[in-house]
Amino acid sequence: MAEDHRRPVIGDAFGTILKRCMDVGVAAGVAHEIVERDDGYLGVGDAVRYFAADDEWSPVDRWACDRATGRVLDVGCGAGRHALPLARKGHDVVGLDASPGAVDVATRRGVTAVLGTVEQLPPALGSFDTVLLLGNNLGLLAGPGHARTVLANLAAATRPGGRLLGTGLDPHHTNDEAHLAYHDRNRQRGRLPGQARLRIRDGAVATEWFDYLFVPLAELRELLAETPWHLRQAFEHEAGYAVHLDHRP
Amino acid sequence: MAEDHRRPVIGDAFGTILKRCMDVGVAAGVAHEIVERDDGYLGVGDAVRYFAADDEWSPVDRWACDRATGRVLDVGCGAGRHALPLARKGHDVVGLDASPGAVDVATRRGVTAVLGTVEQLPPALGSFDTVLLLGNNLGLLAGPGHARTVLANLAAATRPGGRLLGTGLDPHHTNDEAHLAYHDRNRQRGRLPGQARLRIRDGAVATEWFDYLFVPLAELRELLAETPWHLRQAFEHEAGYAVHLDHRP
Question: Is residue A6 within 8 angstroms of chain B, CB to CB?
Answer without folding.
Answer: yes
